[in-house]
Amino acid sequence: MDPTLWAYTPASGRSEHNSLVGYKVEATDGGIGKVDKHSDEVGSAHIVVDTGPWIFGKHALLPAGIISSIDIAAETIHVSRTKQEIKNAPEFEKDQHADDAGYRERLGGYYGGFIG
Fold first, then answer.
1. I need a surface site. Which of 26, 73, 80, 94 has the fewest CB within 10 A?
2. Which InterPro entries match (predicted)?
3. What CATH number has the domain bearing residue 16?
4. What's the domain range around 29?
5. In this predicted structure, what is the pLDDT of residue 7?
């Protein structure tokens, strides 16, 4: 598994002083929801997105390495994946996968298979 997938890139603009909860999340082809939770944990940094009506009642865990930019003024996070790529990712169950290393490994394998 690519360790850089689970870390914010310097180009993302991530500042540990700002909470990302509530930020809108934009895939390369449109909005997918809002940040419900985020983690800056070394080797496991990620955001959990409440997809709202887009994928009704679902959440998506996105590794920090796919965040291309964070616009603090607009409270928007841009990710380098399409809506379909995110929708096709291994399903995230908030209560089951929050601390599941096996799930993160599967997810890392999935997202690590895409270029860029």
1. 73
2. Bac_photo_RC_H_C (IPR014747), PRC_barrel-like_sf (IPR011033)
3. 2.30.30.240
4. 3-101
5. 92
86, amino acid identity: I
With a CB cutoff of 8 Å and minimum separation 6, the contacts of 102 are none
Is the full-model pTM beyond 0.85? yes
pLDDT of residue 27: 96
pLDDT digits (tens, 9 = 90+) for 41-78: 888 899 999 998 777 678 899 999 999 999 999 999 99
Per the structure, how many domains does the chain have?
1
Residues ≥6 apart with Cβ < 8 Å to 23: 34, 35, 70, 75, 76, 77
Q: Is 86 part of a structural domain of the chain?
A: yes
Residue 116 lies in a domain: no
Sole residue written with tokens 């998506």: 60
